[in-house]
Specification:
Radius of gyration: 25 Å
Helix content: 10-25%
Largest sheet: 8 strands, antiparallel
Shape: elongated
Number of helices: 1
Structural class: alpha+beta
Oligomer: single chain
Order of helices and strands: HEEEEEEEEEEEEEE
């Protein structure tokens, strides 16, 4: 009887150890997958400034998608604005020093689309269609002169971006942002993670 009890206890101990090792394996695999996700797929960013009000506020923390190759109109993106591209007088592209910082903006137009801005009415047109921009803080009335003479056709491989807070946003209207090359886009904003009261998709 004693041998049977000892055998039963040993079997339970072995089972507990096996279950514990299985749990450790699962945790290690999950940690490995999380590391892969945050190394190659996802990233975090924090909003600085008020250029994306009212959509995003200063201090908001964002979850972004790194694997982002084809921007679409309306996407909110994180941009490494080290360089700015504008047109020369002969309509060739000229790249110069940009803001030299990371910015967050909304994609308004992509390659081969035409952008026009009526600064008198504050209306942005893409391919002759006025945009319905219920996300902006004010109409697009500034600047009257900037990086471009409108209308402009966006070259392939570039995007035209604007901030939602048009009166204060430094964006493609200005020569130190200009056209943004797709390679400068670090990711697409997926959702706001903080503050928790505003958690959700952007």
């Amino acid at each position: 009887m004693r041998e049977y009890i000892r055998f039963s206890r040993n079997r339970r101990l072995h089972r507990m150890i096996a279950e514990l090792l299985d749990l450790v394996d699962v945790v290690l695999i999950l940690l490995f997958l999380l590391v892969l996700l945050y190394t190659y797929v996802l990233d975090h960013a924090q909003v600085q400034g008020s250029s994306m009000n009212p959509t995003l506020a200063e201090g908001d923390r964002l979850l972004t998608l790194r694997l982002y190759d084809e921007p679409s109109n309306g996407d909110i993106v994180i941009i490494d604005a080290q360089e700015a591209t504008v047109f020369k007088e002969d309509d060739s592209l000229y790249t110069t020093t940009g803001l030299e910082k990371i910015i967050v903006k909304r994609v308004i137009a992509c390659g081969e689309q035409t952008v026009d801005i009526d600064f008198e009415q504050g209306i942005v047109y893409v391919d002759d269609e006025p945009l319905t921009e219920d996300y902006v803080s004010a109409l697009t009335t500034t600047p009257r002169s900037g990086g471009f003479d409108y209308p402009i056709t966006i070259p392939e491989g570039y995007v035209f971006v604007l901030g939602d807070n048009r009166p204060v946003s430094k964006d493609s209207r200005y020569p130190d942002v200009g056209l943004v090359h797709e390679s400068a886009i670090m990711g697409k904003v997926l959702l706001r993670t903080s503050p928790l009261s505003d958690f959700g998709l952007v």
